[in-house]
Amino acid sequence: MPVMGFLLAFISAVATAAGEDFRVDSSRLASQDIILGSRASCSFSFSFSSSFSSSFSSCSSSSFCFSSKEEANCAAETRRWQPPRLLARNPLIYVIDNFATKEECLEVFNNSHGRMESARVWKGSMGRESQNAAVRSGLTTTLNKPAKWTSVTREIIERMDAATMMPHAVGQYLQVTQYDVGDSYDLHRDSSIEAARTLTAILFLEEPEEGGELIFPWVDDLVSGPVAGAEGAPRKDAKEILASGKLPPLREVCEAGLRVRPVQGRLVVFRSHDLMGRLIMPHSLHGSCPVRRGVKRLAQRWYQWHDVHSNNLLGELISQTGLEPSWRVKPK
Ligand SMILES: O=C(O)CCC(=O)C(=O)O
């Protein structure tokens, strides 16, 4: 290993020991924005101390060969986690751009490699899943084997917990989805009183060249203009939609409502229930417009209001009131 490389690695290790690494930790959440380093490609910045000997000897594999080009790449790959920006108040929807680097997005997707299958939808009550290409098309898988998660997947999950302010124990396994040209997901809600998915976090892993917007046709109290690639005007027929229970076809709603571009590295967070547990309907209804060109990929994590391994006590209590069918936020 060249002497210069060793010196830089040493300095880096000292900086790591002094807390100068780029991992998200709770103390950094106090600052306005958080610098994220790409662990996969900039490993010299902080993996040195734990893997000194193996990395030292694997200089030829590049992680510890400090050419100026590599340093420049690392600098370019170091992203700033943009402060959360509010898109709507009902349901609460916010985005965080540059939440993950391109390399991290790729690695999360690769973590699902070989396990993707045709997307399915829940039908009726929880426990019955069916395939209905007219409602949802594309490929999907659930990363339900923590032992197989890479460190990047693990860290993205931790970051999602931080960004949503939700405890780890209430988060469901990451679901990874791919939409190819023509694939879409019709209007739906993510939750019910039984499903108890109070909040959704979606990380876009790959942006299609055209189409594939995440659409919320009936958001209420839209905040206009804070984010490029997230615009539109909500439809005005929320009351009628709720009363009739009939949803217009996706192609019609893709022309209106809040349209969020699936920008690579962008995290979108939204609520499906208000703080009393009421379903935010029809405002939280959303869908994925058809991909016209390219591929759309995402990883999403649903957060329940109870520990994923415990009973849905609130759901049971709401059911006991007999109010369940109308346990909804009423449109104004
Ligand atoms: O594709 C999207 O942007 C949204 C996906 C979605 O709503 C879901 O999988 O439940």
Automatic annotation (TrEMBL):
This protein's cofactor list reads: L-ascorbate
Q: What is this protein called?
A: P4H8 protein
What is the name of the gene encoding this protein? P4H8
Which Gene3D superfamilies is this protein grouped with?
A: q2cbj1_9rhob like domain
What is the residue range of the signal peptide feature? 1-19
Q: Which PANTHER family match?
A: PROLYL 4-HYDROXYLASE ALPHA SUBUNIT, TRANSMEMBRANE PROLYL 4-HYDROXYLASE
Q: Which residues belong to any copy of the Fe2OG dioxygenase domain?
A: 166-305
Q: Which GO terms describe its cellular component?
A: endoplasmic reticulum
GO MF assignments: iron ion binding; L-ascorbic acid binding; procollagen-proline 4-dioxygenase activity
For this UniProt record, give its keywords in alphabetical order, as a comma-separated list.
Dioxygenase, Iron, Metal-binding, Oxidoreductase, Signal
